[in-house]
Amino acid sequence: MILAALLFFPLAAAALSAMVRRRAWMEAANLAGFAITFVLALALAGEVLRRGTVSLWGDFLYADHLSALVALLTASIALVCAVYAVGYLRDDERSGAFEDEPAAKLRKYYTLTPLFVFSMLLVVLANNLGVMWAAIEATTLASVFLVTFYGKVTSLEAAWKYAIIGGVGLSMALFGTIVAYYSAQHLPGSGELSSLNWSVLAGRAAYLDKPAMRLAFVLVLMGYGTKAGLAPMHTWKPDAYSEAPVPSAAILSSVMLNCALYGLVRFYVLTSRCLGTEYPGRLLLLFGMLSMGISVPFVLIQKNFRRLLAYHTIDHAGIMVTALGIGGKLACLGLMLHMTFHTVAKSLLFLCAGNVYQYFRTDLFHKIKGGVLRVMPLTGAVFLMAILAIIGMPPFSLFQSEFVIVRAAFAGGHAWAGGLFILFGTGVFAGALLHVGSLVLGPASAPVAPRRPWRDNSLVVLAAVLIAIGFWLPAPLLDLIRGAARIVTGD
To answer: What is residue 188's predicted lDDT score, i.e. its pLDDT?
Structure first.
């Protein structure tokens, strides 16, 4: 019953937060709910490593190594962001960021966030591709109201753009799911609901209707690519990330990206087993390279550090899609490693950006004028370390995953992709390091900030994890990552 419990406790936390009136009770409901969810995600990973797959209710809920990995990443970041949100929202309340009805604002955050996490967990635990699509749609419905959290004109504009672009994209993914269902109609037992179960389709993918699967993959790539923020469907991302509360932006930039890529990976597996890897691989390489290339000029000229992180997320979405397009054992291992490492590093960067934004009351580089390391020593040091990690500086973990992907590109006959990968990566490296380096270093530009235990402890935990995984991955986690990669390659 681990699968059912994983979905139950975020829902319970949302229901409790909606019913109670005091802020402390809402905080406790979220912290307890996400702590239990994290423990359950660890238990699920252990069960998957022991048994291979776990299912419930006639395979309605289903988990393999890929599901367990994404669920564990989701639960981990949700818990860290829940701890961070306690201090962040308390400071927002003290500073008057909630102009009216602060209790209603807090209830909105503490109710919607568990619903957001529930929908992301349902994405990775739903065996039925139609239910998975509905869950991805639910992530939009929950998170769009978090983007409007502060009620500013720019927040409403960002939420509108997010809802419209995301809605169009997901409607294409729905059509792709319907076409995939059609492609399985001639299979034995195709009249049953199981014809949309991924575990059933994956075993019979070679017999799916080939023209239908060609169309289905194109539609799903456009749809879930929009949700992942692949270029040219990426334009909602910088606005949404810069307007949402920082804990929500951290989840959007890491965990929700993983869920969109998860949906894409599931369809890639079906398409590659039906048509071979060349057809989906070429499309993925096109969108991956385009996403990496488009992010470079925007990173170089960026004036807003939260929008900088948004464009950087677009770059990393492109990196992971490029790895999937290259295909093969090495590239798929690099994809799963990069997904894991990016989740930790990008979440940490957004939390650091939140500390800076909340203290200086701006996210513009020129208004802060540097010196964050002197004003906020912990935040400044962690911010600089995390940006070095995310741009692929050795010995941090993302250098390892990017090196694996580039090596796979050259070894697999995709030298042009490997060359462009290095070129675009160099541009992003220069822009991100230049901007964040000037923000963090230099003379103090404000009085030294007081310590904020809730927020600072979250930074310390994620920073410790980021440093540790650069040198050592626990054997069970590495086995989970390798198992997820094997699912993609079909080994």
So the answer is: 63
pLDDT recorded at residue 194: 59
Question: Quick check: helix, strand or coil at residue 126?
Answer: strand
d(CA 194, CA 89): 44
For the chain, residues with pLDDT lower than 50 are 190, 193
**Ramachandran category for residue 132: left, alpha or beta (phi over 0 → left; psi -120 to 50 → alpha):** alpha
Beta bridge partners of residue 54, listed in sequence order: 63
Domain edges within the chain: 1-127, 128-276, 294-491
DSSP 40-79: HHHHHHHHHHHHS-EEETTTTEEE-HHHHHHHHHHHHHHH
Identify the CA nearest to 318 among candidates 295, 301, 298, 340: 295
Rounded to whole angstroms, the Cα distance separating 383 from 373 reads 9
pLDDT digits (tens, 9 = 90+) for 113-144: 999 999 999 999 999 999 999 999 999 999 99
Rounded Cα distance between 459 and 457, Å, is: 5
Question: For 296-319, b where at least 16 C-beta lie within 10 A, e where not — what string?
Answer: bebbbebebbbbbbbbbbbbbbbb
Give the residue among 429, 202, 400 at the shortest CA–CA distance from 308.
Answer: 429
**Greatest Cα pair distance in the chain:** 71
**pLDDT of 171:** 96
Residue 433 DSSP SS3: helix
Can you tell me the distance from the alpha carbon of 45 to that of 66, in angstroms, rounded to the nearest whole number? 10
129 Cβ contact list (under 8 Å, min separation 6): 177, 180, 181, 196, 197, 198, 201, 266, 267
Q: Which of 369, 372, 348, 346 is nearest to 358 (CA)?
A: 372
CB atoms within 10 A of CB 51: 11
